[in-house]
Specification:
The chain is mostly helical. The chain is about 85% helix and about 0% strand.
Length: about 110
């Protein structure tokens, strides 16, 4: 039962990150500009997020934990950014949700 839930969480994290960073990339560009973050940081975050979610869906336990901890770290930074700029709760929820999912993936892997 737990392993099935973890597999679903992996798919949710994987598809969410890929959707936002590949399909809705224009929104990411606008967000990073709004927060006054440099383009190189946006690109680095994108590369890291895509790399980490690929690790999460692998079969190697070490890679899964590395990917989950990487996503958790990036989602913590995203949440702190939202707090810093005074974002509405609705804008903070995706980072919190992915942070929780990543922590659960790490813990139950």
């Amino acid at each position: 039962m737990v392993s099935s839930v973890v597999e679903v969480l992996k798919i949710v994290v994987f598809t969410s990150v890929l959707f936002v960073w590949l399909v809705r990339y224009q929104n990411i560009i606008a967000e990073f500009r709004k927060y006054n973050y440099p383009d190189w940081l946006r690109d680095l975050v994108g590369i890291l997020k895509i790399s980490f979610v690929i690790m999460i869906v692998s079969k190697d336990s070490f890679l899964i934990q590395l990917g989950a901890s990487g996503i958790a770290l990036l989602m913590t930074a995203a949440f702190i950014t939202h707090l810093k700029v005074g974002s509405r709760l609705a804008l903070m929820l995706p980072s919190l949700f992915l942070l929780c999912c990543s922590c659960l993936i790490f813990y139950f892997n």
